[in-house]
């Protein structure tokens, strides 16, 4: 099913998964989370996350740690 989705939809699903991982009480390094969410590189992860969420993965994690 995922193979039939367009790249944008797949990126959205991967960012959703990354957000779940970033919300964990003891999150793993960003590189590991990017890989676990299905991204092939940190630059792709960073770009997709920022495009869809408006902030970087590190900033997202920092804001969640404060709450």
Task: Give structural notes.
It is a single chain. The protein is mostly helical and 67 residues long. It has helices at residues 7-22, 30-37, 42-53, 57-66. It starts with 6 loop residues before the first helix and ends with a helix.
Count of helix runs: 4
Shape, per Cα inertia axes: globular
In N-to-C order, the SSE pattern is: HHHH
Number of strands: 0
DSSP strand (E) fraction? under 5%
The mean pLDDT is 87
Summing up helix and strand content along with how strands pair, one would put the structural category as mainly alpha
Biggest sheet architecture: none
Q: Specify Rg, calculated over alpha carbons.
A: 12 Å
Blueprint (SSEs and pairs):
Layout: H1 7-22, H2 30-37, H3 42-53, H4 57-66
Helix pairs in contact: 1-2
Give a short overview.
By secondary structure, the protein is an all-alpha fold. The chain is built from four helices and no strands.
Q: Which features does this protein show?
A:
single chain, 67 residues, mainly alpha, 69% helix, 0% strand, globular, disordered N terminus
